[in-house]
Amino acid sequence: MEHLSRVPKDRIAVLIGKSGKTRQMIEEACEGKLTIDSHSGDVSISWTGDPDPIRRMKVPDVIAAIGRGFSPDRAVQLLEDNVFLRMYDIREWVGRQPNQTRRMRSRLIGTNGRIRTLLEEMSRCEIAVYGSTVAVMGDNESLALAAPAIEGILDGSEHSTVLFGLEQDKRRQRLRSKNLETFRDKSSIDSDSFESMVPGFSEARRRMADSNPMELEEGESVRFEEE
To answer: 151-158 — which CB contacts under 8 Å span 24+ positions?
Structure first.
């Protein structure tokens, strides 16, 4: 049995689900049997067979994401190769005073959740603010966009400044992606340019690649002479 994570007691019911259906769904996705301690919140797994190394590395993030506010359906997406979890402890920025933690949570969420929604839409991440933590889920590019914005708010920056910076980062990321695609297209065109200038060159090269190399008998050699 392998220990995965510890979840808050008020998230244990979410992890188990009605009639244990959520736990069953997670077990099927993770290919293992979960053991949940209802007193401590510790979650462990017994693997069925030999687990995939990548999946084994990602399962603790699934449990941690559920414990930090994500729904199980969303957290299971972390098993995909290109989805990752990043967590921030608000107390590292504001200390351990509960009123300061609540204030920072409010800044991250915004009125009626507007700031969190804008951050999610602009960065293409999913964000959960729970207790003293901020959990962010997305691919590498999305996390790269969300990280400076979240850290900016935690540092005390104005929302307008953070959102403007996020928009600028998004534009630069989009431009880099476009330039990379243009470079790839140009490289492809350059590689084909010589073949297009010499009729039949591609076909001749293909035949040469398909043909078997000439085998020489012992003592034989090939000589090339100028005409």
So the answer is: 151/88, 153/104, 153/107, 153/108, 153/115, 154/88, 154/90, 154/93, 154/94, 154/104, 154/108, 155/93
Q: Examine the pLDDT at 217 and tell me if it is beyond 90.
A: no
Q: Do 90 and 160 fall within a single domain?
A: yes
pLDDT, residue 210, reads 62
Cβ atoms of 32 and 50 within 8 Å: the answer is: no
pTM of the model: 0.75
**What sign does the dihedral 182-188-194-195 (CA atoms) show?**
negative
> Does residue 109 lie in a domain region?
yes
How many domains does one find in the chain? 2
